[in-house]
Q: What sequence folds into this?
């Protein structure tokens, strides 16, 4: 199953792009004591019981709230020092899988200020409930 929407499979795509936080992330000594800009991107494949042809009730309770997704990622990223971007991405991904409606999650962690001649470095991880 892909992350993108798939009406036939009853899946919608929920995303958060460019969530920017100040976090303690990295293996170098200065990264333990100084926060740095970290940009997080999240893609979720979410069960859509009203696909392929229906329209569900216009109620927040029936969907995965992208505000709550962003808050979960923000809380985890700012909770304390993490050595590896991979670990941070995995923590966010597994936390988002706690919602049984989430079938698959992809988390991208970018460190845009690490290398002066590079726009950004980072990692993408994917986790699934299957």
A:
């Amino acid at each position: 199953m892909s992350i993108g929407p798939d009406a036939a499979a009853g899946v919608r795509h929920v995303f958060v792009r460019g969530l920017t936080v100040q976090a303690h992330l990295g293996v170098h000594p200065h990264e333990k004591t100084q926060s740095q800009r970290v940009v997080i991107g999240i893609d979720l494949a979410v069960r859509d019981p009203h696909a392929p042809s229906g329209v569900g009730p216009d109620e927040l309770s029936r969907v995965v709230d992208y505000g709550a997704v962003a808050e979960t990622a923000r809380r985890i990223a700012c909770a304390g020092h993490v050595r590896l971007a991979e670990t941070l991405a995995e923590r966010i991904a597994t936390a988002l899988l706690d919602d049984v409606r989430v079938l698959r999650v992809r988390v991208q962690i970018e460190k845009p200020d690490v290398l002066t001649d590079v726009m950004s470095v980072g990692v993408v991880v994917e986790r699934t409930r299957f």
In short: The two ends are 9 Å apart (CA to CA). The longest strand covers residues 11-23. The mean pLDDT is 95. The domain at 11-128 is CATH 3.30.1130.10 (GTP Cyclohydrolase I, domain 2).
